[in-house]
Amino acid sequence: MTAQIIDGAALATDKISQLKQIVTSLQSRGITPGLATVQVGDDPASRIYVRNKVRACTAAGVNSIHHDLPGSSSEGQVLQLLNQLNNAPSVHGIIVQLPVPAHLDARRLSQAIAVAKDVDGFNWQNLGALVEGAPGILPCTPRAVMVMLENAKIAVEGRHAVVVGRSNIVGKPVALLLVGGGATVTVCNSRTPDLGAITRQADILVVATGKAGLITGGMVKPGAVVIDVGINRLPTGKIVGDVAFEEVKEIAGWITPVPGGVGPMTVAMLVENTVNAAARVQP
């Protein structure tokens, strides 16, 4: 059995087309959604991510405003810019591209973004609403995972979902969304003893550790849904996920590729969050 591929790139293209229609409607009301991206320093991977976000915004008709700050910028300078963006009527969404230089407090910067413009969904108020079960703006990658499951018509309710990864960006919020969907959820990490014994129980396995090839074929239940959130660059330059794709695709029932899986959908969810934020603005 070879797994069905959940094509995130194709889904993202469809989502952007749908958002373009909404943007056209908003523009008729005099509102053009605007996303401001703040990048501090010259991290090469961040350059690629920002370029993909700008491209998706352009395709959807969203105004993309990029602020490129030198790596030597002080925390005060970044906070001052964020305050200006919080108060700019033409800006409906703001993200600080991670990682930031070591002398900056990424947590403090993310919490400085106005809740209504926190399109990454990292603000504690948005995360707290998710815990309460009354979500506001959802984090992009966890939302992408849920949309991909929904589009593949994969039921969450009553299934055993295992999440490998405990970050505030992916692991914890995706576990909460799965709980909200009625799944029984186990959260592990790369250091969980006998990790394979737990992952083999998963009907739905979500992996987000940043460790290339962590999940092998012998760690997956036959027919399981495998969602690979990891993005890792090998010394050869090849981009791979946290799942040994060639092995696991012969065991799983559904699987996401890397690249072309969760990544494009994460960007699409960012654009969607921005468009939704703009739609809430009173004309």
**Strand composition percent:** 15-25%
Structural class: alpha/beta
Which overall shape is indicated by the principal axes computed on the Cα atoms? globular
Subunit arrangement of the protein:
single chain
State the end-to-end CA separation: 54 Å
Q: Into which percent range does the helicity of residues fall? A: 40-55%
Question: What's the count of strands?
Answer: 11
Q: What pattern of helices and strands is seen along the backbone?
A: EHEHEHEHHHEHEHEEEEHEH
Q: Order of strands across the widest beta sheet?
A: 1-11-8-7-5-6
Low-confidence stretches: none
The tally of helices reads: 10
Give the overall pLDDT as a whole number.
96
- Kindly provide the radius of gyration, computed on alpha-carbon positions and rounded to a whole number of angstroms: 19 Å
- Report on the biggest sheet: 6 strands, parallel
Protein described:
With 283 residues, this protein is of the alpha/beta class. The protein is 40% helix and 16% strand. It has 10 helices and 11 strands. The protein has helices at 8-28, 44-60, 75-86, 106-111, 124-132, 140-151, 171-180, 195-199, 245-248, 262-279, and strands at 4-5, 34-40, 63-69, 93-96, 160-164, 184-188, 204-207, 225-228, 232-233, 239-240, 254-255. The protein has a 6-stranded parallel β-sheet with strand order 1-11-8-7-5-6. α1 (8-28) runs parallel beside α10 and α6 packs across α10 (262-279). It is globular and about 50 Å long. The N and C termini lie far apart (54 Å). 44% of the residues are buried. The mean pLDDT is 96.
